[in-house]
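User: Fold this, then the next.

Assistant: Folding the first:
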Amino acid sequence: MSFQQGLSGLNATSKSLDVIGNNIANSGTYGAKASRAEFADMYAAALNGAGTNNIGIGTTVADVAQQFTQGNITTTDNPMDMALNGAGFFQLSDGVNPPSYSRNGQFKVDRDGFIVTGDGKKLMGYAANAAGVIQPGVAVPLQLPTGGVTPSPTSKIAMEINLDARKPVTTPAAPPLINFSDASTYNNATSMTVYDAKGQDIALTYYFQKTAADTWDVFATANGTTLGGVAAAPTPVTTLTFNADGTFAGSTSNSLAIPATTNAQGATTLPIPAVAFDLSRATEYGSAFGITNATQDGYTAGQLVAVSVDANGIVNAKYSNNQSRPAGQVEIATFRNPQGLQPIGNNSWASTYASGDPVKGAPGTGNLGVLQSGALEESGVDLTGELVNMITAQRAYQANAQTIKTQDQVMQTVVNLR
């Protein structure tokens, strides 16, 4: 008689309970994946390699297999939290060992601007140059810019406006052509802010004066300084003409020269010698004056105020001057056999020969999953299922213990024979 079968059953069931206990312990761990104990039966080989009535000698744990199922995604209030929806792993580096891989997207920004995990490992991805252009290739630790954005002077101005065709001619009978302090000498006015090379603001004001049917003069001032002519005798910076149906026909000038001025703060602004001035989308219809769009490409200096990550893993840095530019792009990796990855703790895995080499790319490309910012992937553990499995394992443990007890009783009976 043998106690082997019952003993192997106790050992295997005990390991199964260990796996179940580990799963339950990590039911609240973001990015964790459940495991399961897989069993195999054991048989003793006959001396001559033959035999059809072999009795098994028990069981063994053949493998503890990880289950890489998609966990639920829950939203958070932290924009640096990231969740992967689909295949892939974040790549993490400590700068010394080979990269590790994780599904836990609880990231932070350290003192040097690097995006890191709670244990200090850096998130890998593609860097961006100073202009915000992503440089794909070899992944490097992602680092947010620590400096601000330098100012950029205005070089282009574009406006979409409608000038009311029903308005009368407002050209004064005697010079000057316009009096900026007298609204009766022009029909409409609007303003916008542009910037010099230092990022100092310049208030541009445009005055639209109807001079004849389908003809409008445009005057302008910069911080109150007349553009075109002199203060006592302003001249138009451009003249707009329209077709009979109110569509744009042309303009006499498409450029503005802005001199040095004094702004509202009392600072002297730098001159901007040539600014492209696009009014080609202007119309003259029989409806009220209106501006549907006004843009300029300059901006003042700005400091980093927020970070966001899009579905393709591009990390966007937002600045106090309303500018936004990419600071990098997250690169993720997938494996032919994820179950071959080796768990190394801290919600991370290491690649092995069994897992195969990582296939890398940006989120949303190929068969890689997409990335969701401000969210985390919950544990893949089904807590209800684990509790049921625990009851089943407990019953199996009791049953194996009972076989040992029965074997003991049988042995005792044999020993007591006289």
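Now the next one, as you asked:
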Amino acid sequence: MRDIVIIGAGASGMAAAIGAAAQGAKVTVMERNEKPGKKIYITGKGRCNLTNASDMETVRSNVITNPKFLYSAFHAFDNQDIVRLLEEEGCPVKVERGGRVFPVSDHASDVTAALKRRMDRLGVKLCLHTRVLSLLIEEGAVTGVQLRDETTGREQAVRADAVIVATGGCSYPSTGSTGDGYFFAAQAGHTVTERRPALVPFETKEDWARQLQGLALRNVQVRIKKDGRMLWEEFGEMLFTHFGVSGPVLLSASSVVGRRLPAVLEIDLKPALDEEQLDRRILRDFAQAQNRQLKNALSGLYPARLIPVMIRESGLDEEKAVHDVTAAERRRLLTATKRLTLTLTGLRGFNEAIITQGGVSVREVKAATMESKKAAGLYFAGEVLDVDALTGGYNLQIAWSTGWLAGQSAGADKK
């Protein structure tokens, strides 16, 4: 029976534990927090968007960094496999818009509980309040870990046939993702690529965006450009914040354009209408409010809080009577509606990032097994690797797939 130690009881760590134990291995999971799956509890706003129901080629097409590396992992354990596992353990799921898969209960805790039940049935030992300090490496092979009991302060060495690093990245450090896995990788001679916050809100130059804090815009088209070149385009929902902009269409954009800032954000507030149709719509609204001031005639076009911004960005006088608005002025309002412009200056930090971009170089990891090419018996899974994807359940699928493959590979009898 192979003795496997897994560092981290997050999504990838629990998948690794189940994969290894299913091979008949003796599995111990070291978790520094007071409970497993702490980051899972906050995913999907507490509902846990656990995977995406699309075919696996579509899932792979939503991977931003190193998608080819994940062929074997996705083949070994796909979206149907994680759904089957959860439902077998009493956690039924449902599919929502965009193929997003959630537990029927809308409680992320049910996902963690189902995984824990499977781990318990397979005899996995879970050590909470336990922090791994370093790897034990002898003659180019990992032989165990040095750990500390966080409740007693006692340190000890634990021997193992294989160690799986499933520590997560740097995002949401309050959940325990403080970058320990990168230290372990470096200790074994691995290259760790630059880490950046990803799936994270943007900061903007313009103050008016911050003045709209809390305002959500639905069914808008956003475009991000730099030097006239299109970097990102998507339809959906966005949100103004106290520092700039956020929301689903922009969180995904951050993973693609984050390294190319500053850039220009253009918001099309009426994407269903071309400019000619929008002009007729504005004329119709104006005809019904000819004697009103402009500031009181736009409620049919924009949310109330956005009206002063639209007038100001169009260079118009809010006190002007609608019947005195010229065709040229109306054109400026139309242009602002189709291309409301902001300057994206930077990203928020890891405290607000859903995932980490960058990590252990996949060139130094065997894609077929998740084993290190630098140190025998060392495996990596999940966010600690230099792989990441867009929003929609894809990042958790990466965690399940790489975790399962690492566990299966580490748990296989190599004697």
